[in-house]
Structure formats: C-alpha cells, structure tokens
Design brief:
It contains 6 helices and no strands. It is mainly α and 185 residues long. Helix 1 runs antiparallel to helix 5.
Length: 185
C-alpha cells in the first residue's frame, strides 16, 4: 500500500504540472495571436520571444508531465490491486472518458503549437481565451468524479460544470466589453 501512495503522489504531481503547462501554453497562444497586431519591429521581437517560451514550456514541462502522469496512472490502474478494483467502477469509466478528451485537447494544442512555431496564426486571441476553458472544464469534471465517486453526486457535479462554463463565457464577454471600452478611451 505504501508503494501505491508514492505512485499516486507522483501521478498527482505530474497531473498538476501537465495542467499548468496546458493553461499557460494557451495563454502564450493568446499573446502570440495578439502580437501579430503590433507594429514592426515590436511584432517580430514579441513573436520570437513567445515562440521560444512556447517551445520550452511545451517540450520541457507539458509533454514530459503528460507522459509521466500517464505512466503513473497506468501503473496505478493495472499493477495495483486498488487500481484493478477501480477499473470495474462506473465513475472510473466516465473519468477515463474525460481523460481521453484531455488527450485530444493536448493533441489539438500541439497542432496549434506547431502552427505558431511557423508563425501561422489561424485563430484570434479571443478564440484562444475560450479554448483555454476546455482544460478547466475537464479538470473540474475529473476532480468531481475522483472525489465524489457517486452517480447522483456526479450529476450535480456535471450540472455545476455547465453552470461554471456559462459563467465563464459570461465573464469572458464582460471582460471583452470592458477591454474594448478601455481601448477606445
């Protein structure tokens, strides 16, 4: 059981650093997209710096954290008795579905990262601000599932996720209006 707790601790550490990387990389995408609107030479200087920051974050923190979080998760699930029991429970199946969505989100971020490394900006800063909430929603879902482990409570958690998402979108629109108002001054 002591080995299991070490594995779980390492899994949680790398999940946290993985999410930190995902949250920050998309924030860098916002800055990169907005730098395209700046005049020269400011644009070139900013974009070069953002590309370097993105590269380091993505390959030194985010990808290694994703891989290590996954390695420790597989170890917990398939090589411990507790994990084998969890794999039979419905809440774990739903959690793994959200983890699958997280992998898809990560891979889409990788695709965007590769485009931005070539300075191909296909989305606006506003798009990236909304995109950044995808990881937040997945994080909320997974935490509720892991902590509650109960179908009825999980339903409340999902309702909470949707309400939270609506509040985030409303907050985003309000922030956008305030920002536009301040820029027009």
């Amino acid at each position: 059981m002591e080995l299991y707790n070490y594995i779980k601790s390492l899994h949680l550490i790398f999940v946290i650093t993985w999410f930190a990387g995902l949250f920050y990389i998309v924030r860098l995408f916002v800055y990169h997209a907005e730098a395209k609107q700046k005049p020269q030479p400011e644009q070139d200087i900013l974009i070069k710096q953002y590309q370097l920051m993105q590269y380091r974050l993505w390959y030194i923190i985010t990808w290694p954290s994703a891989v290590l979080a996954s390695v420790f998760a597989f170890w917990m699930l398939f090589f411990t008795e507790v994990g084998k029991v969890w794999l039979t429970q419905p809440w774990m199946h739903v959690k793994l579905a959200f983890v699958f969505l997280l992998y898809l989100y990560h891979l889409k971020c990788h695709q965007i990262f590769k485009q931005l490394q070539k300075n191909e900006v296909k989305h606006s800063g506003n798009f990236f601000r909304i995109w950044n909430e995808g990881a937040t929603i997945i994080l909320f879902a997974v935490v509720f599932l892991v902590i509650l482990k109960n179908a009825i409570n999980w339903i409340y958690g999902v309702i909470g996720i949707f309400v939270f998402s609506i509040l985030i979108m409303m907050g985003f629109k309000l922030y956008k209006k305030i920002r536009e108002k301040n820029q027009n001054r």
